[in-house]
Structure formats: C-alpha cells, structure tokens
Design brief:
Elements: H1 13-21, H2 29-64, H3 70-86
C-alpha cells in the first residue's frame, strides 16, 4: 500500500516546543503527530458510534414505550460488577 502525506501544519513556536518537550526517547515529532491523529480519528469514530447507539436506544424506547430510570440502569450495572468481582455469572 502506498503512503500518503498530510498537509503541512503551521503552529506557534510555543506549541512546537511543548510537543518536542514530551517526545519519548527515539520518537520523532512526525511520529507524535501521526499517533495523535490516529487517536483523534479513533475517538471521533467511537463518539459517533456511541451517539448512534444512544439515538437507536431512544427510538426503541419511544417505539415500545419501555423506559428505564438511571437508578435501574446503575443498579443493574452494580449487580454485574458485583457478580464479576465475586466470580458468579451475572443475571
């Protein structure tokens, strides 16, 4: 697969210095930028999927008329966590 380039990024000298100051041993500024870009793309995709699931859940609740309170949801999550901690299968 061929690689592609991204547009040059102009930043103020303070940001460049800050970025260079956190580089790991042997890491380049380009590697840091690529990693940051990959993480941001992943974050935005995950965020969009989360919102889509929430909207689908809302549509399903409106369709069925079945809603759950925050207390019910948190209670079920706590039960799942307690079961996991104790080694018992959750309900």
């Amino acid at each position: 697969m061929k690689t592609a380039t991204l547009p040059s990024l102009r930043v103020d000298p303070e940001l460049r210095a800050a970025a260079e100051s956190v580089l790991k041993e042997g890491e380049t500024l380009s590697a840091l930028m690529e990693d940051s870009l990959r993480r941001q793309v992943h974050y935005r995709k995950t965020q969009a999927e989360f919102i889509a699931r929430g909207l689908a859940s809302l549509a399903e609740a409106e369709r069925t008329g079945i809603y759950y309170s925050a207390e019910e949801v948190l209670g079920e999550l706590k039960d799942m966590l307690d079961a996991k901690r104790s080694g018992k299968p959750s309900a």
